[in-house]
């Protein structure tokens, strides 16, 4: 098996095949089974005595929330015991963390040490924290994270130092799984080609989505799917100067677009986060928050990308949203976001 590399100049982990037959369902050379369990659940194998101390930090790292407008946890953390590995099939969990101080005389400590090479154990005993991750160790589409240090304070500090990367890893692993699910029934290549031919841009359109509305003279195309109601729209406009793309202008522009094409939908006042991100190789202003329609008493979550294509001198506004009252919406919004991120100009290389 390949090495797992730590970050920030930490020593490398080597995840070894375990010799304890009762704990392992497959060997390194065997074909791996499919991973099990909810994609939004993280099982943390740790001794009770250490879990009490690290639990608040683990929950703070992973249990982010999204308002849809209900509050939905993006990930849910659950404590697990090494003693239950076989009965609960922990080694096949989609998201699994093994956590212990390096010399803890507990089942979790014994298990963690069995995963590491002697060199790594020695480095951790000398004071280096060890936080690392690897995919597909015991099952397909699995993310395994390992966290250790010579004492509990250094373990907590190590986790805190890797907060952003740990969360990025679980996000990346989940997005890979969801991307496969989105296109498992195939793609609407005909629709993607139609978008390219008629409008000069395209996305990978999953089976089940259709063009619900197209107003090329107004620079607007809407794709949609029902059950639940969800959409993806692209708006474009020429001659927008770069200096115009301020936070307030982009918020106002979305309200203008949805007022025209979505029967007076708007961003719920005070319910939007604004930040910058890469989108289709361009710097975009991102809006994420809640939309509402006061006349229809409807609302839900949305995410938008506003950016300029300098070569075309064209402003683009790419937006996704969900309406699924009193039900979970985060996963649907994530699916739409992954579709949106396949956006490209018709002559550009295929992405995702």
Question: pLDDT average, as an integer?
Answer: 90
General form? elongated
Please tell me the CATH architecture of the largest domain by its name: 2-Layer Sandwich
Widest sheet, order of strands: 11-12-13-17-16-15-14
| Count of alpha/pi helices | 8
Domain module count: 2
CATH topology of the largest domain: Chitobiase, domain 2
- Strand fraction equals 25-35%
CATH class of the largest domain: Alpha Beta
Main sheet properties: 7 strands, antiparallel
What would you say this structure looks like, in words?
The protein is α+β, with helices and mostly antiparallel strands and 352 residues long. It has two domains: 179 residues, Chitobiase, domain 2, CATH 3.30.379; 160 residues, Mog1/PsbP, alpha/beta/alpha sandwich (Protein Transport Mog1p, Chain A, 3-Layer(aba) Sandwich), CATH 3.40.1000. The chain starts with a strand and ends in a 7-residue tail after the last strand. Strands 11-12-13-17-16-15-14 form a seven-stranded antiparallel β-sheet. A five-stranded mixed β-sheet has the order 6-3-7-9-8.
